[in-house]
Design goal:
Helix content: 25-40%
Order of helices and strands: HEEEEEEHEEEE
Shape: elongated
Number of strands: 10
Largest sheet: 6 strands, antiparallel
Structural class: alpha+beta
Number of helices: 2
Strand content: 15-25%
Radius of gyration: 33 Å
Distance between the termini: 119 Å
Length: 244
């Protein structure tokens, strides 16, 4: 008895064809899974970089805020001619012995006393040569002609800059902070240098010397490569008010 042979188009898949199909499917699934894993890794990395960059920007904004009021403030009273006591909105960065100017008065007055709590400054007698009104600017002038990097506005900002944002106590090292990002502990490091126009032979040849604070940031985990870096320069507002 003879068995009829099915036409070729009705014979179905051979074992070899089935195995090849399974192999191809497995390869495609493996590639898809790898792509998903890689996408997840990149997503985590992007989040780490974004949070690290925001961390740096947060610190930079704090430094800029400090630079805005450093040795640069406004009167909150209305001193008359001969007045020696000045009430101010801030006394940040001012020091006894500093010289300052009030409003449009071109006289340089010397500070003899500073009351941090009351935010008042006492200048030497005979006091103001012109009356001034509340809101008039008060700006230090002695750093304008700094003859060394330690005497300019840049170093003044360096000494008065806020501590870097940190989840742990960084009072011992305010230029470094720690933060947990995506479950890992990262460290922000802020490196500072004073720059700007250099004094030549100990003499400032422009309106303001050593007025810049150069900031270099990096965020990294341990000895690994940084996930975020930034370099910028900050000029205190007071440096822009130096007499011509």
């Amino acid at each position: 008895m003879f068995k009829s042979k099915l036409p070729q188009h009705e014979q179905g898949f051979t074992l070899v064809e089935v195995l090849i199909a399974i192999l191809i499917t497995t390869i495609f699934i493996s590639i898809a899974m790898q792509a998903m894993v890689i996408a997840a890794v990149f997503k985590v990395r992007a989040r780490q970089v974004a949070e690290a960059t925001t961390w740096i920007q947060e610190d930079l904004e704090n430094v800029r805020f400090q630079a805005g009021k450093l040795r640069y403030t406004q009167l909150t009273n209305n001193p008359i001619i001969g007045a020696t006591s000045l009430s101010l909105s801030s006394v940040t960065g001012f020091a006894v012995g500093d010289t300052l100017r009030v409003g449009t008065d071109t006289t340089n007055y010397t500070i003899s006393v500073i009351d941090q709590n009351a935010k008042t400054i006492t200048i030497n007698s005979p006091g103001l040569s012109q009356a001034a009104s509340s809101g008039a600017t008060v700006v230090a002038t002695n750093p304008c002609k700094a003859s060394s990097s330690t005497a300019g506005f840049g170093e003044s900002l360096n000494l008065n800059q806020p501590a870097a944002p940190s989840e742990t106590n960084n009072s011992a090292n305010p230029n470094s902070g720690t933060k947990t990002i995506t479950g890992k502990s990262y460290t922000l490091t802020r490196t500072v240098n004073v720059g700007g126009t250099d004094a030549v032979s100990g003499t400032c040849t422009s309106n303001a010397c050593y007025e810049l604070l150069k900031l270099a940031y990096e965020v990294k985990q341990g000895s690994e490569a940084p996930i975020a870096t930034m370099y910028t320069e900050v000029i205190p507002n007071a440096a822009m008010q130096c007499p011509q």
